[in-house]
Structure formats: structure tokens, C-alpha cells
Amino acid sequence: MQKDNLTTLRIETIAQSHKALGLVKPKHPLFSILRFEDMPRVNNDARVRLIFDFFHIVLKKDCPGKLQYGQTPYDFDEGVMSFFAPRQVSILEPGDVLAKSGWLLMIHPDFFRTFPVGKKIKDYAFFDYAVNEALILSEDEEQSIDSLFQHIEKEYHLPIDTYSQDVVLSTVDLLLTYCNRYYNRQFITRKPKHSELLNRVDHVLNESVRNAAEQGLPTVNVLASQMNLSANYLSDCLKHLTGQTAQQYIHEKLIEYAKDILVTTELSVSEIAYQLGFGYPQSFSKLFKSKTNQSPLAFRASFN
């Protein structure tokens, strides 16, 4: 069998990124904003693992091909946004081409380390979403985002003064706030598709709980992997559908399964704990009581 060669390319600075794209040095060492239409067309004929040491905020328009959103492919007729945190791994496939238009904003963590947005950006889960969980913008949303990118671009090309960093970062802060808002809209408008996802989650989770004795306690990462989703995206999706995070949803399923066993069998608490994948019975009892305000034995006794 032929081995699939994969080259790793680590980009530590924004200047290195400009060089790799065939562009002149950035005007600022810690941040840069580019238009896809201004980038040289690069033909890629190899698989490359890309690792960047800085944030990427990307708006793609008029990109060849389709975006796979969950189980549904979408044309790039509307703007599509992706977000990448430092040291995330991206795979560039042979034949991949740049979008015909759009924006690429690169920001090194040192640029906003002492600013409020430096703390806020860590709370935006969409920086850990997978590519197929991108933000698909409506026409009005795209116009709003475009105007913010244009504002950042204008500031980028002005001479640096005392206010430059504040102006750029306040605009980036507003940009991310809008993106967070639009992601919430996307969860709501795609609720029918997400309801199908919830059915799949329940099926996978029920199987995991039934096999927990052999496979161990179900975790968010394992569940997300089985769903072909990132853990953060799955958790955010469940939050919108059920009001619970993925971890809370898993715990609820475990407790419901435990209740059935307690009422319908004479298994001891220890046996039930091990059957559900808990390493220690005390951990199971603690979780059960935190969710029901009763110990497992007290719950069983209430049915006798």
C-alpha cells in the first residue's frame, strides 16, 4: 500500500505567512488583513499539514466547490466564515484553491494580550469548531461583516499612532460579537437539521451507555468523534436544542439509565456504577445525588 505523504508546515510569524503566500512583508508584525482577490493564485499539488501560531478570521466568497455543513452541502454563494485558534491543525489537500474574494485577518495573541478582547476571545467556542461547522452568512450579515473588515483594513494602512491598536481591537471585538450573534442565529434557523442531529446523538449515546462497562464512561470528546463533530460545536448545538451542554446531556442520560436499573433490578450500587463505566462507586453516587437530591439507594427505596 502506498503511503500518503503529508508534509508539516509550521508558520510562527505573520511575516512567514506573507512570504508563503508570495506577498510583501506585513505593515505590522503582529497583525495583518488581506483580500483574497489580491493574493497570487497558488497551485498546490501536495498534502500539507498547516500549523499557525496566531489567530485566523476568514471570510470566503465565491469559492469553488461546496461546503459540507453537517450532512448537507452548501454552495459558496453566500459568505462563509471560519475561525482558527493558534496551533490548530489544518490540512491543505492537493488541488485546493483560494477563494476568489473575501478577507483573511491574522492576529498574533501578543497583539491583544493586555486588552479585554484578549480574554474574551478565549470564550468564543467557534475558534475550536471544525471547517464543516463554519458560519454561513446571510446577505445582510455579510454586508455588516464586510464593513468591519473594511474598517480594519483602512486602519491597517494608516500610519501607526497612539490609538491604532485600540481602534483595531475594538473593531475586532465588535466583529467577533457579531459572529457570535450570527452563530446563534444559525443554530436557530437550522433547528430542523439539528433536531435530526439530536436523534443521532441519542442513538449513539444510548449505545455508549449500554456498552459503558466495556468501553468506559461516555465522554464529550468520544461522543463528538462518533458524530464527526468538534466537541465545542456539539456542546453549543445541544445547548441551543436542549438547554444543556454536551456534558450535562450525557449525565442526564446516565442518570435516567441508572434509575431504570435501580428500579428494575437488584444490582448493588457498586455493580450499577461499574456497569455504567464509573471507575469508583463513590463517583456514581455523588453524581446521582447531585442530579436527583437522593442517594441511589434512597431513590430505589422510594419505589418499594
UniProtKB/TrEMBL annotation:
GO MF annotation, one: sequence-specific DNA binding
UniProtKB keywords: DNA-binding, Transcription, Transcription regulation
Record Gene3D superfamilies: Homeodomain-like
HTH araC/xylS-type domain residues: 199-302
UniProt cross-references to InterPro entries, sorted A to Z: Homeodomain-like_sf (IPR009057), HTH_AraC (IPR018060)
Tagged with keyword Transcription: yes
Pfam families, per database record: HTH_18
Keyword Aminoacyl-tRNA synthetase: no
PANTHER family given in the database record: ARAC-FAMILY TRANSCRIPTIONAL REGULATOR, TRANSCRIPTIONAL REGULATORY PROTEIN
Protein name: Helix-turn-helix transcriptional regulator
SUPFAM superfamilies: Homeodomain-like
Coiled-coil residue spans: none
Species whose genome carries this gene: Spirosoma foliorum
Superkingdom: Bacteria
